[in-house]
Amino acid sequence: MGKTEHNRVVITGVGLTAPNGNSLSEFRQNLLDGVSGIQDYEIRYFGKTFAGLCNFDPLKHQSKKDVRIGTRAGSIGIYCACEALLDAGIAIGQDVAFDRAGVFLGITEHGNVETENEIYEISKFGYNTRYWSHYHNPRTVANSPAGQVTVNLGISGPHYTLGAACAAGNLGCATGVQQLLLDEVDVALAGGVSESPATFGIFAAFKSQNALAENEDATKASRPFDKKRNGIVISEGGAVYVLERLDRALARGAKIYGEITGYAYNSDATDMVLPNAERQAECIRKALSRSGLEPKDIDIVNTHATGTPMGDIKECVAIRSVFGDDCEHTYINNTKSFIGHCMGASAALELAGNLPSFQDGIVHPTINVEELDPECALRNLVLNKPVEVGNVRHILNNSFGMYGINCVLVVSKYE
């Protein structure tokens, strides 16, 4: 089927909270200014570490009771969804019917925070189940974050919370595109959320794998591609996009941030944790093919690189195999160096950080690279300072997760 205004999907609203910003403009400016959102952090049972924490106001869009009985991931999703709708100029129930809107949010894990906290609290009362929260089940069901958004906004269309590890933010967006093209919805709220720093288990697990970042300076702990990188900084956050078919967006005179022109997802099928560069490259090529683009057409590649020694190298192998040395106008950056690994929210937030490049022609850098690992020496890797490149037309956003789930999104400048 050929491309028409009815089967093209565009981004018309952005809502986010990140460790270094609670709006797209604040987030973008801090990326250009080199401002890290990583801070010292201490968590029960584990002790001192680092984390990327958000400081948004959940009471802007929720009551105190709803915040209390819900979850942190739910509050992040509600904040981002409401901010995205405000940005898009859409009121649910007025500009779109309640049953023609849908919510599609990616997440890495959910329910661990609530379970850990409730076990801790019940332990004070001899594990008497009278003191177990009756909100536990709705808090921890797999569809909880997206479901909390629908309750908050009265949305009666479909909602999914997509468990896709660290590829979840991109998969949330891809699912929103699919639902629009299937005509299941007229407006899709799509992206990813994470509440990961609130759980002891994730810090302990990465520590046991020797994959948790250590550094004397919190702001320098997340350092993808640096020769001395030593692991992940765990962060929270969220980014939700308003997605619409192009004909609807044009009819209402919407501001258009970009057009999702391609996506792909696949599986390594080789290991629980260790990435497979060949499968990653296949995913990138499939996304390019669906978008009708060649590697040389891409202006920015936002890398998934998390700061683990082998993970960064594997992705660089995949990128080299696709882009080679001929893509002289393809620039490569990384957003986790600023905000750490926001898990299920990471891909959605990282895309948001690059979207303004369509307007300002600037590629934000990867920070904290003091000595580049030779195995990560990619052509046009933007390090430590932003680069003005002029006209940015196409962005490719990588995301790769545990059990080898890969998802790549291509977003193009609307022209």
- CATH topology call of the largest domain: Peroxisomal Thiolase, Chain A, domain 1
Tally the structural domains: 2
Bin the helical content: 25-40%
Global structural class: alpha/beta
- The sequence of SSEs as H and E is EHEEHHEHHHEHEHEHEHEHEHHHEEEE
Instruction: Give the full name of the CATH homologous superfamily of the largest domain.
Output: Thiolase/Chalcone synthase
Index terms:
415 residues; alpha/beta; Peroxisomal Thiolase, Chain A, domain 1; 2 domains; two-stranded antiparallel ribbon; 14 helices; globular
Q: Would you spell out the secondary-structure blueprint of this structure?
A:
Elements: E1 9-17, H1 24-33, E2 38-43, E3 47-52, H2 64-69, H3 72-88, E4 101-107, H4 112-123, H5 136-140, H6 144-153, E5 159-163, H7 168-181, E6 187-194, H8 200-208, E7 237-245, H9 246-251, E8 258-267, H10 277-291, E9 300-303, H11 309-323, E10 331-334, H12 336-339, H13 346-354, H14 357-360, E11 362-363, E12 387-388, E13 394-401, E14 405-412
Helix pairs in contact: 3-6, 7-13, 10-11
In short:
The chain has helices spanning 24-33, 64-69, 72-88, 112-123, 136-140, 144-153, 168-181, 200-208, 246-251, 277-291, 309-323, 336-339, 346-354, 357-360, and strands at 9-17, 38-43, 47-52, 101-107, 159-163, 187-194, 237-245, 258-267, 300-303, 331-334, 362-363, 387-388, 394-401, 405-412.
Structural summary, described in words:
Helix content is 33%, strand content 21%. The protein is globular and about 65 Å long. The chain folds into 2 domains: 9-251, Peroxisomal Thiolase, Chain A, domain 1, CATH 3.40.47; 262-412, Thiolase/Chalcone synthase (Peroxisomal Thiolase, Chain A, domain 1). It has 415 residues and is of the alpha/beta class. The chain has a 10-stranded mixed beta sheet with strand order 5-4-6-7-1-8-14-13-9-10, sandwiched between helices. It has a two-stranded antiparallel ribbon with strand order 2-3. A two-stranded antiparallel sheet has the order 11-12. Helix 3 packs across helix 6, helix 7 crosses helix 13 (346-354) and helix 10 crosses helix 11. It has 14 helices and 14 strands. The two termini are 20 Å apart. The chain has helices at 24-33, 64-69, 72-88, 112-123, 136-140, 144-153, 168-181, 200-208, 246-251, 277-291, 309-323, 336-339, 346-354, 357-360, and strands at 9-17, 38-43, 47-52, 101-107, 159-163, 187-194, 237-245, 258-267, 300-303, 331-334, 362-363, 387-388, 394-401, 405-412.
